[in-house]
Amino acid sequence: MNQKVALVMGGGAGTGRATVLAFSAEGAKVVIADINEAGGLETLDQVKAQGGEGLFVRADMGNAADIQKVLAQTQLDFGGLHMVSNNAALGAPNKPVTELTEEEWDRCMAVTLRGIWLCMKYQLPLIEASGGGAIVNIASVSGIRGEAFESAYSAAKGGVINLSKTVAVEYAKRGVRVNTVCPGGIDSGGMTFYLGKNPEIRDRVLNTHAMGRLAEPKEIADAVVYLCSERASFITGHDLVVDGGVMVRSNVVDL
Ligand SMILES: NC(=O)c1ccc[n+]([C@@H]2O[C@H](COP(=O)([O-])OP(=O)(O)OC[C@H]3O[C@@H](n4cnc5c(N)ncnc54)[C@H](O)[C@@H]3O)[C@@H](O)[C@H]2O)c1
What we know:
By secondary structure, the protein is α/β, with parallel strands linked by helices.
């Protein structure tokens, strides 16, 4: 990926940071955008420590002006953009669908679905003008199946999958491939925090994965980098499930 430029929206921690580091290890120049300045700068330090070149811009993925600021800085410093992972998301409180408030629904949608659309709206022209490339939006297995008490998050992630397929079709002849990665549980972010506080739920969650464990952030990052690479040159509009066997598992037999 030498001479290529990769952007990770939400690259300041966990999966996003692992994705930045994986792009950088492949030789790409990396742009880290995150709402958390300390996390983003820490990721940039790690890029430099492994001999890479990068840039951090503080940005909220739900805010058009921030997204445009990231892209303007990317153009200025690195002269174009080829690969993107739109990684950040915001969940809603776990509640029955009838108890969720309008505000909770709207906050989740504003980043997790609308934010992905907003990112692509401004990223696509720059990628096209840079000679083409690829976008990977991070969805979830929760966007494929029903997830009790997570109606807003599940709906948003399902929306990300179909939005990505739609944009993939619109840009298939214009040199931009668009795919999603649908992770199962990842040992990062809100999941690590939540399971750390609820050990009995942790066992249940691990058990939903046929492999009996969560993903390391790098295992998701590697799938993202693959989909952005030339090795995936004929793959577009695909939702790649990376879940340690969540979606294929039936719980009939305890293995
Ligand atoms: N953690 C899991 O088990 C899990 C499972 C399935 C899918 N996912 C999805 O994977 C992706 C990564 O999740 P993660 O839990 O690994 O998080 P992560 O560790 O990658 O951290 C997310 C980063 O996004 C940043 N961020 C949050 N809101 C932002 C905003 N509005 N604008 C810019 N940056 C913002 C945070 O500061 C943080 O640095 C998300 O899309 C999530 O929904 C996570």
